[in-house]
Automatic annotation (TrEMBL):
Keywords on record: Cytoplasm, Iron, Iron-sulfur, Metal-binding, Oxidoreductase
GO terms, molecular function: 4 iron, 4 sulfur cluster binding; adenylyl-sulfate reductase (thioredoxin) activity; metal ion binding; phosphoadenylyl-sulfate reductase (thioredoxin) activity
Originating species: Corynebacterium wankanglinii
Name of the protein described by the UniProt record: Adenosine 5'-phosphosulfate reductase
High-level lineage: Bacteria, Bacillati, Actinomycetota, Actinomycetes, Mycobacteriales
Primary localization: cytoplasm
Length: 259
């Protein structure tokens, strides 16, 4: 039985209950899953402090299947590195429909600059107006974790099925929840989770952008070192945790993609 939340203007579905429809990643073939586990056991420690180029070259050589590069469009460093080291990888962007206009502009520019990489734009099952109708307006304020689950976690899971692993932009310098992030691990589906930027600082990222004339998200130069949905991202003061502006209205630090 579905619980309803009484909200002004009507009754809405319990946000803990996602819309009907597919929302899980398909299981890997058994041989690929075993190979991934073996690779992590052998290489995780060796790659822990490796350079981004070495990590991506390793991924190109050893991954037992196609890889996808997840791009938040906060910066385009991963897109540039993948163009050099992972010529066969797809790009994946979670279009939550709550992004800053500048973020969508960066996504369009990435698609134009790197035409040899297919850009997959993953969206939630419900459009933003449909979500408001089913779950009530401003779900991101009332139940931010549920909003992230439906608009980020589940779309990523659904679109991850064709891949043996994914490339993430995790950096240990981004805050205490990421301070011990691995360069190589398994996600909860047995896929490789590869994070070539784990040792980079924000300054390293900006220097690489400028040195290689990359596409720059303008808000990263206006006090937004970490950028998510426009509804849930605020600028931060100098010296603050880079992710301090994410969900500043809630006791929440992660969207669920890396938990």
């Amino acid at each position: 039985m579905i619980n309803l939340l009484n909200q002004p203007g009507g009754n809405f579905r319990d946000p803990e209950i996602s819309p009907d429809g597919p929302k899980e990643t398909e299981a890997l073939p058994e041989d690929v899953a075993k190979r991934n586990a073996s690779l992590v056991e052998e290489w995780a420690d060796k790659l822990y402090d490796a350079s981004a180029a070495d990590i991506l070259n390793w991924a190109h050589e050893y991954a037992p299947g196609k890889l996808v590069v997840t791009l938040s469009m906060e910066n385009t460093v991963l897109a540039e590195l993948a163009s050099r080291h992972l010529p066969d990888a797809d790009f994946l962007f979670l279009d939550t429909e709550y992004h800053f206009p500048e973020t969508l502009e960066v996504a369009d520019q990435v698609e134009q600059r790197y035409p040899s990489h297919r850009l997959v734009r993953a969206k939630a099952q419900l459009t933003r107006p449909e979500q408001d109708e089913v779950y009530g307006p401003n779900l991101y304020l009332r139940a931010p974790s549920a909003c992230c689950r439906m608009r980020k976690v589940e779309p990523l899971a659904l679109h991850m099925s064709p891949y043996a692993g994914w490339i993430t932009g995790l950096r240990r310098a981004d805050g205490p929840t990421r301070a011990e992030a691995s360069a190589l691990s398994l996600d909860n589906t047995g896929r490789l989770k590869i994070s070539p930027l784990v040792t980079w600082s924000l300054e390293d990222t900006e220097a690489f952008e400028e040195r290689h004339n990359l596409i720059i998200h303008p808000l990263t130069r206006q006090g937004y070192p970490s950028i998510g949905c426009a509804t849930c991202t605020l600028p931060v003061a100098e010296g603050q945790d880079p992710r301090a502006g994410r969900w500043a209205f809630a006791s929440k630090t992660e969207c669920g993609l890396h938990e």
